[in-house]
């Protein structure tokens, strides 16, 4: 990860193999309160991120912001890894949670047997 | 090192080797869970049904990397906790998946019976002139600002159609007691209908108690009605917040509370704090006032951003940080009272603690997913308009009718509760699918409020990084977990708040 900052803009180059787009989007969403965020592709292997401060402040502590960004990227990658690996079991839990709730009701209408195939009419 | 292949290869539909489906160099399989850093040293991990463990920072990385070794002495206890609390499993399909599914279902069981709270706004008239009040009018024009009996009857008919066998009929204002004769009419009518439809009704009157008479008290007693009033703290705060021409609102409220307790019993009277800019300066004094009046609970609510309150920016708009600072100081005072032997609980914390420490859901409209509006609450306004929540009708006072669902006497139950508007709203009513919330560790304890998002940010989905709802709830939940982790005496107090046993 390469970083470069001047005044109110931070440019970061990120390895696309390590941090896929979904991780970048989920992580950088939380920076949109203070920054105008741009995500672009430098090439197939790298993303270019630009953070531009929304509010003019006297001093932007870029060292801390970069440190936090690095930490957040790792955290969101971890989250995404868990989400991907547990997606099927999560869907299964939710499906099972609600699947057994439907009450089975007896059909209200009478079942007709126009061609005589009713199981009840078959003599064993 | 965390393998990235599972993520980067997702786009391919080719058959994969068997190794692809095996857990990467782990002796266990992951179950769905989320994590959040609560301090430099600690992080909290939360599973799919809201069970949590506070663990040293870096534990999630170790879990995912397969480094938790059941054979290692230092990891034995953690490994057992992770297995027992459904964070990891020794088989791909956990043996107890049915238990997990049942727990999930229990967490969402507040949905089983649909709408319970039916708010009837009996009158918009009020004799107070509170500076932050969203809706009231000082007027004697009953015809214009009181709910008509036709609308009362139509509201009761809709309430009887609710699938919920236990409904709450809450009378609000303005000042509801200004329309006492209509409250009596509504209760008597509802009693007859409830017998017909085999429903149990809890009656609640929201009042400032200034107009309370013996006749009213007797009626409330006969019908086992609950009183919900407002007490903003000592007189210098309460009277400033709640101005009543030529009278002390605080004195009237305190006297009213005493009379209600004598006739109805303490358990039938509750009070709410509305926090204003002035209140923020006096967290301890507000708690002390509640203790002095022998309350056993206090509900510290932030002021809502609706109606007249939004327009009065100078007096009411304050940062979420200021409220959190106030809340933490007040909570500290409340905890100290409990440590000293006086039981008093904070209700907002208790709602979150119940979600944290028990398998059960809490029927609190603001902290539910799917959202509480319509699912749990519906509002019948004085003019017959039906709104999705109390806050929605306050927005309507600002001429924003986004959440108006219909009109009493004109629309059917199906049109109101299952109509296009509710269908559209339901798209944004689950925090499991909202940006920012979907990855949040506190998802199971928090809720979603499209009305708040719309009122404060102009869209139903909302923007979490700038949402005071998100900022406030995330910090309160984090703070409660950190307090319990830091001091077991505090955890014991918190547990007593949700069990009622000290």
From TrEMBL, chain A:
It comes from the Bacteria. InterPro entries: HxsD. NCBIfam families: chp_LLNDYxLRE. This is His-Xaa-Ser system protein HxsD. It comes from Chitinophaga hostae.
Automatic annotation (TrEMBL), chain B:
Residues 122-288 form the Radical SAM core domain. This is His-Xaa-Ser system radical SAM maturase HxsB. Its cofactor is [4Fe-4S] cluster. The lineage of its organism: Bacteria, Pseudomonadati, Bacteroidota, Chitinophagia, Chitinophagales. Signal peptide: none annotated. It comes from the Bacteria. InterPro entries: Aldolase_TIM (IPR013785), rSAM (IPR007197), rSAM_paired_HxsB (IPR024023), rSAM_sf (IPR058240), Sulphatase_maturase_rSAM (IPR023867). Keywords: Iron, Iron-sulfur, Metal-binding, S-adenosyl-L-methionine. The gene is hxsB. The keyword Ribonucleoprotein does not apply. NCBIfam families: rSAM_paired_1. PANTHER family: ANAEROBIC SULFATASE-MATURATING ENZYME HOMOLOG ASLB-RELATED, RADICAL SAM DOMAIN PROTEIN. Pfam families: Radical_SAM. It comes from Chitinophaga hostae.
């Amino acid at each position: 990860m390469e970083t470069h900052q001047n005044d109110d803009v931070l440019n970061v180059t990120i390895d696309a193999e390590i941090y896929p787009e979904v991780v970048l989007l989920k992580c950088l969403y939380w920076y949109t309160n203070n920054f105008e965020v741009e995500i672009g592709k430098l090439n197939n292997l790298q993303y270019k991120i630009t953070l531009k401060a929304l509010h003019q402040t006297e001093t932007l502590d870029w060292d801390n912001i970069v440190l936090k960004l690095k930490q957040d990227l790792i955290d969101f990658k971890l989250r995404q890894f868990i989400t991907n690996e547990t997606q099927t079991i999560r869907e299964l839990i939710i499906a099972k949670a609600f699947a057994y709730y439907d009450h089975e009701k007896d059909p209200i209408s009478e079942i007709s047997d126009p061609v005589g195939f009713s199981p009840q009419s078959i003599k064993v | 090192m965390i393998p990235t292949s599972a993520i980067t290869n997702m786009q391919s539909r080719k058959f994969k080797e068997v190794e692809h489906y095996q857990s990467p160099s782990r002796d266990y399989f992951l179950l769905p869970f989320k994590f959040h850093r609560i301090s430099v040293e600690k992080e909290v991990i939360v599973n799919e049904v809201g069970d949590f463990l506070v663990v040293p920072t870096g534990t999630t990385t170790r879990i995912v990397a397969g480094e938790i070794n059941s054979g290692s002495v230092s990891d034995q206890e953690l490994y057992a906790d992770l297995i027992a609390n459904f964070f990891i499993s020794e088989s791909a399909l956990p043996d107890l998946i049915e238990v997990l599914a049942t727990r999930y279902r229990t967490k969402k069981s507040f949905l089983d019976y649909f709408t319970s709270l039916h708010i009837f706004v009996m009158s918009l008239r009020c004799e107070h002139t509170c500076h932050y009040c969203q809706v009231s009018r000082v007027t004697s024009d009953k015809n214009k600002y009181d709910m008509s009996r036709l609308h009362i009857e139509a509201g009761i008919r809709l309430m009887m159609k609710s699938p919920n066998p236990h409904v709450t009929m809450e009378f609000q204002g303005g000042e509801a007691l200004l329309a006492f004769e209509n409250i009596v009419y509504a209760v008597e009518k509802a009693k007859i209908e409830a017998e017909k439809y085999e429903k149990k009704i809890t009656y609640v009157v929201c009042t400032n108690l200034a107009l309370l008479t013996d006749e009213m008290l007797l009626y409330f007693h006969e019908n086992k009605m609950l009183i919900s009033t407002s007490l903003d703290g000592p007189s210098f705060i309460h009277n400033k917040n709640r101005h009543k021409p030529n009278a002390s609102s605080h004195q009237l409220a305190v006297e009213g509370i005493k009379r209600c307790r004598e006739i109805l019993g303490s358990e039938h009277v509750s009070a709410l704090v509305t926090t204003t800019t002035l209140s923020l300066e006096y967290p301890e004094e507000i708690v002390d006032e509640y203790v002095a009046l022998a309350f056993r609970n206090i509900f510290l609510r932030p002021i809502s951003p609706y109606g007249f309150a939004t327009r009065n920016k100078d007096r009411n708009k304050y940062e979420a940080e200021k409220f959190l600072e106030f809340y933490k100081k007040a909570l500290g005072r409340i905890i100290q009272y409990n440590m000293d032997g006086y039981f008093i609980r904070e209700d907002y914390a208790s709602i979150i603690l119940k979600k944290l420490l028990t398998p059960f859901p809490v029927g609190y409209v603001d902290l539910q997913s799917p959202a509480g509006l319509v699912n749990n609450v519906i509002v019948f306004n004085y003019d017959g308009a039906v709104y999705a929540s109390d806050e929605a009708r306050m927005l309507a006072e600002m001429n924003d009718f986004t959440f108006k669902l219909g009109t009493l006497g004109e629309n059917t139950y199906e049109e109101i509760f299952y109509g296009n508007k509710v269908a559209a709203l339901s798209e944004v009513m689950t925090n499991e699918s909202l940006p920012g919330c979907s990855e949040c560790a506190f998802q199971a304890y928090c809720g979603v409020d499209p009305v708040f998002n719309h009122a404060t940010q102009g869209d139903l989905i909302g923007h979490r990084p700038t949402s005071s709802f998100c900022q406030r709830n995330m910090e309160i939940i984090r703070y409660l977990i950190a307090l319990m982790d830091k001091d077991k005496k505090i955890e014991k107090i918190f547990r007593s708040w949700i069990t009622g046993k000290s």
